[in-house]
Automatic annotation (TrEMBL):
<dbReference type="InterPro" id="IPR001638">
    <property type="entry name" value="Solute-binding_3/MltF_N"/>
</dbReference>
<feature type="signal peptide">
    <location>
        <begin position="1"/>
        <end position="22"/>
    </location>
</feature>
<dbReference type="GO" id="GO:0016020">
    <property type="term" value="C:membrane"/>
</dbReference>
<feature type="domain" description="Solute-binding protein family 3/N-terminal">
    <location>
        <begin position="75"/>
        <end position="297"/>
    </location>
</feature>
<dbReference type="GO" id="GO:0006865">
    <property type="term" value="P:amino acid transport"/>
</dbReference>
<dbReference type="GO" id="GO:0015276">
    <property type="term" value="F:ligand-gated monoatomic ion channel activity"/>
</dbReference>
<dbReference type="Pfam" id="PF00497">
    <property type="entry name" value="SBP_bac_3"/>
</dbReference>
<feature type="domain" description="Ionotropic glutamate receptor C-terminal">
    <location>
        <begin position="75"/>
        <end position="279"/>
    </location>
</feature>
<dbReference type="InterPro" id="IPR006311">
    <property type="entry name" value="TAT_signal"/>
</dbReference>
<dbReference type="GO" id="GO:0030288">
    <property type="term" value="C:outer membrane-bounded periplasmic space"/>
</dbReference>
<dbReference type="InterPro" id="IPR051455">
    <property type="entry name" value="Bact_solute-bind_prot3"/>
</dbReference>
<dbReference type="InterPro" id="IPR001320">
    <property type="entry name" value="Iontro_rcpt_C"/>
</dbReference>
<comment type="similarity">
    <text>Belongs to the bacterial solute-binding protein 3 family.</text>
</comment>
<keyword id="KW-0732">Signal</keyword>
<protein>
    <submittedName>
        <fullName>Amino acid-binding protein</fullName>
    </submittedName>
</protein>
<dbReference type="GO" id="GO:0005576">
    <property type="term" value="C:extracellular region"/>
</dbReference>
<keyword id="KW-0813">Transport</keyword>
Length: 314
C-alpha cells in the first residue's frame, strides 16, 4: 500500500530498484479513471487516462463463471481499499479511486468488458478470503501478499508486484534504523497481516500492537502511542509521501509478493488473469502504469515485473 519524501524517496528508490515487480460505500462505481491525491498524483491522472484508453480488450473469454458474471454485469466488482496512497486512494473531490492497484483493476475490467468500469468493496485483512469464497467480489486488488496459507483458501494470479516489510517512524526519530532496533519498542501493524508474524521472527522483543487499518497504525505513530509502524514498504512509503511528519527508515527486511486474489473454484479465471498480466507486462502497459502511480514518488525507471507463478502459492 505506500511511499516517501526527499530523503525517504532516495531510500525507497534504492530499495525498489531491485524489486522484481511492483467495499462498501467507501468504494463506489468508477466508470473512468481520474482524480488523484496531491499535485503529483493529479498530474499523472491524464497519463493514467491515456494508458487505460489504449489498453487491450480480450478477443474472447474462456468458460469461467466469474468472467461471465463480470461481462454480464458490465463491471468488475473487486475488494480493495480507499486509503492506500499510490496504490488505491479515493479523491474526495471526484469520488474516484486512483493508484497502481485501483488502476490495474480498471485495466482488467476493460480487458473483460471493453470498459474500465469497476465497483470497489472495502475489505479488511481478515475479510478478503471470505469475500472471495462467498463470491461477494470477483477479485481482490489490495496489496495482497501471496502466501501458501492463503492459497489454500483462494487462488492467486501473479505475482504482479514485489514489496517487503519496512519501518515507518516519526520524522524526528533517530533511535530506530533497522528491524533489530524495534526490540523493546512499541510497534504497530495491521491485525492478521503477514507483518505481525514477521515481527515475531525478526524483532521478538518488540511490543506489538495490532490495529485494523493502515490509518489507525499511522495515527498511532503520529500521536506517539507507538514508536514505529511495520507493514509492506509500498504502503508505508505512500503514507510518508502524504504525511510530512513521518518517514520510512532502512531497507525492507522481508519479501512480499503481491497477487490478485481470485475465487479458488474458477481455475479458468486464474489462467485468464495470468495471461492478461503477462500481456500487459510484455507490451509495456504495466511499466507505464507504475510510472504514472508509484513512479510519481520513486525516481528512476520502472522495476522489472516479477515472474508470474514464481512464488509458492501463486
Amino acid at each position: 500500500m505506500r511511499l516517501s519524501s526527499s530523503r525517504r524517496v532516495a531510500l525507497v528508490a534504492v530499495a525498489l530498484a531491485g524489486v522484481a515487480a511492483a467495499a462498501t460505500g467507501c468504494g463506489g462505481n468508477s466508470a473512468a479513471p481520474g482524480g488523484g491525491s496531491g499535485a503529483k498524483a493529479s498530474g499523472a491522472a491524464g497519463s493514467v487516462d491515456s494508458i487505460i484508453a489504449s489498453a487491450p480488450v480480450a478477443k474472447s473469454l474462456p468458460d469461467s463463471p466469474t468472467l461471465k458474471k463480470i461481462k454480464s454485469d458490465g463491471k468488475l466488482v473487486y475488494g480493495g481499499t480507499a486509503s492506500a496512497p499510490l496504490f488505491s486512494l479515493k479523491d474526495p473531490t471526484t469520488n474516484t479511486l486512483t493508484g497502481f492497484d485501483a488502476d490495474l483493476a480498471k485495466l482488467l475490467a476493460k480487458y473483460v468488458t471493453g470498459k474500465p468500469t469497476t465497483d470497489m468493496k472495502q475489505v479488511q485483512v481478515e475479510t478478503r478470503e471470505a469475500l472471495l469464497q462467498n463470491h461477494s467480489v470477483n477479485a481482490v486488488f489490495a496489496t495482497y501478499t501471496i502466501t501458501p496459507e492463503r492459497a489454500q483458501k483462494i487462488a492467486f494470479a501473479g505475482p504482479y508486484y514485489s514489496s517487503g516489510d519496512a519501518i515507518l517512524v516519526k520524522k524526528d526519530n533517530t533511535s530506530i534504523k533497522t528491524v533489530a532496533d524495534l526490540n523493546g519498542k512499541k510497534v504497530a501493524t495491521e491485525s492478521s497481516s503477514t507483518a505481525a508474524a514477521d515481527l515475531k521472527k525478526y524483532a521478538p522483543k518488540a511490543k506489538v500492537q495490532l490495529f485494523e487499518e493502515n490509518n489507525d497504525c499511522l495515527q498511532a505513530v503520529q500521536q506517539g502511542r507507538v514508536d514505529a509502524y511495520v507493514l509492506d514498504q509500498g504502503i508505508l512509503v505512500g503514507d510518508a509521501s502524504t504525511n510530512s511528519d513521518v518517514k520510512v527508515v532502512g531497507q525492507p527486511f522481508t519479501a512480499e509478493p503481491y497477487g490478485i486474489g481470485l475465487p479458488k473454484d474458477d481455475p479458468a479465471m486464474k489462467k485468464f488473469v495470468n495471461d492478461w498480466l503477462a500481456q500487459i507486462m510484455k507490451d509495456g502497459t504495466w511499466a507505464k502504469l507504475w510510472k504514472a502511480t508509484v513512479g510519481t514518488v520513486v525516481s528512476g525507471d520502472a522495476p522489472k515485473p516479477p515472474e508470474i507463478g514464481s512464488v509458492q502459492g501463486s
